[in-house]
Amino acid sequence: MVGVSMRMEMAFRDTFRVAYKIVLPNFILMLPLGYLMVVTYRVGGWPLELLFVAPLAALRWVFALLVAVGKVYRNGIKALLAGIDARDRYTYGHSVRVSRYALLLARQLKLPEDLTESIVHSALLHDLGKLGMPDEVLYKPVRLNSEELKTVRRHPVQGSAILLQAQVFPCVKDGILHHHERWDGQGYPSGLRSEEIPLSARVIAVADAYDAMTTDRPYRKALTHEQAVEEIRRMAGIQFDPKVSEAFLAVADRVRQLAAHLARRGDPFPGDVVEDLGDPLDGLHPHPQSSN
Ligand SMILES: [Fe+2]
């Protein structure tokens, strides 16, 4: 595993995660093969062991291939994130903050590791569709009119359409397409209600709303942390999934610490936010071009 980690230039921790998820079950299945090797060695000595060389080499090749596919997938997310960063620095910072809040929520909800990872990656790309918005709408310094709002409301569909081109991202599409749905069915683009909305999108919706409320925009001042928390409490069961809101209220103090931590250090480096699923308050390096 150390060899594969070095060859793929991946942290050993990430290689281990892939191995744990994919290879450990295979490893357990190989135990009978190991037993068979011992038996054949006792019967025929080492010449008989040569029979196992080809199958073991094939297994190693499959393992390296799986690690490589995981790396291509994460690099694809980093590339898209770099595109968001180049187009609009605010949306980049917003996306990484939402992903860190979503990670805290996913941990609090004790979601499985696979789902947590796809929630973090969906959160990073949730506003990807804004890449296609005209400059006069994306950078408008005053409140948008109703026609411009219609343009903005197309971004979940546009974002998921971009991902549709790359078939390796099916698991993150739901969170992008549905992050503006509401628990009461009054959201967009599909008007889904309650548990019809994918869980990833319900988690991102709360994280997204918190960051949107607590960030200064040219046309309005940010709410305080306490006001934003109160709003999430008030809209539980109306705009937000009550269970996700409850999880948010339970970690509200950590969210405040995380917001302060990110504000102090500046936007994290794109590679870190894609790779790092550890404690959201740890391990991020400042973005090389961060001006915060
Ligand atoms: Fe959005």
Structure overview:
There is one protein chain. With 292 residues, the protein is an all-alpha fold. The chain has two domains: 2-65, no CATH class; 89-275, Orthogonal Bundle (Hypothetical protein af1432), CATH 1.10.3210. It has 15 helices and no strands. Helix 4 (53-87) packs across helix 5 and helix 10 (170-177) crosses helix 11 (199-213). The model has no long low-confidence stretch (mean pLDDT 84). The structure holds fe (ii) ion (FE2).
Short key terms for the protein model shown above:
single chain, 292 residues, mainly alpha, Hypothetical protein af1432, 2 domains, 0% strand, elongated, binds fe (ii) ion
Short description:
This protein is an all-alpha fold and 292 residues long.
CATH uppermost class of the largest domain: Mainly Alpha
Helix content: 55-70%
**Shape call:** elongated
Structural class label: mainly alpha
CATH fold topology of the largest domain? Hypothetical protein af1432
- Name the beta content range: under 5%
Q: Nearest-angstrom radius of gyration? A: 23 Å
Number of strands: 0
Low-confidence stretches: none
N-C termini distance: 39 Å
SSE pattern, N- to C-terminal: HHHHHHHHHHHHHHH
Q: List cofactors, ions and other ligands.
A: fe (ii) ion
The number of domains: 2
- The number of helical segments is 15
Mean pLDDT comes to 84
Tell me the CATH architecture of the largest domain. Orthogonal Bundle
